[in-house]
UniProtKB/TrEMBL annotation:
This is Type-4 uracil-DNA glycosylase. GO terms for molecular function: 4 iron, 4 sulfur cluster binding; deaminated base DNA N-glycosylase activity; metal ion binding. It comes from the Bacteria. It comes from Methylobacterium terricola. Belongs to the uracil-DNA glycosylase (UDG) superfamily. Type 4 (UDGa) family. The chain holds residues 269 to 472 of 479 of the full protein. Residues 38-197 form the Uracil-DNA glycosylase-like domain. One of its GO terms (biological process) is DNA repair.
Amino acid sequence: PARALAAMAAQEPASLEALNAVIRASEPLVPGATQAVLGEGPLGAAIAFVGEQPGDQEDLQGRPFVGPAGQLLARALREAGIDRDRSYLTNAVKHFKFEMRGKRRLHQSPTAGEVAHYRWWLDRELAFVAPRLVVALGATAVLALSGRQIPITRARGPAAFAGKPFDGFITVHPSYLLRLPDAARPEAYEAFVGDLRRAALLAA
Ligand code: URA
């Protein structure tokens, strides 16, 4: 099986399932993750969302955006009139990276090198899904999609990712909203929902 997997990885995977099998069988770049967290949603979804990397809950459950940031995203999607089940959700990096703080596993941001390593997968994954619009949630997703470090505050809104066969849209990551002081959160959340509404119109 190891040799069969190596052979599969060396070739272009012929389907999203074949690609996912390769990802699932791959070791995390940084040891420690429970499992690879694959993208979720239908092929042909009009809109795809790219986050950073799975968090603690995603790592344990094996599904993207099921932890606190994912729940906030789900709420914002509902308010923006976007059906999560008809959208595609994935991450730039497929394994959770963390440091232990007591008994807690604290998220660590992936390095640019780690993002580059996972980029080959993300490109193929999105080619199979073939969405009309890809929404980058935060700076890591922007780096994965554009190859460039771009400040979100400047780039927020419709975007073109060079060489990509879909339209782009840049907004903040939902975990950024969770880190804001309480007083700043409602306004930032409304702006996020506003971005999602705009994105929905562009994907329609
Ligand atoms: N944050 C992400 O970027 N992705 C997830 O799946 C969960 C939290």
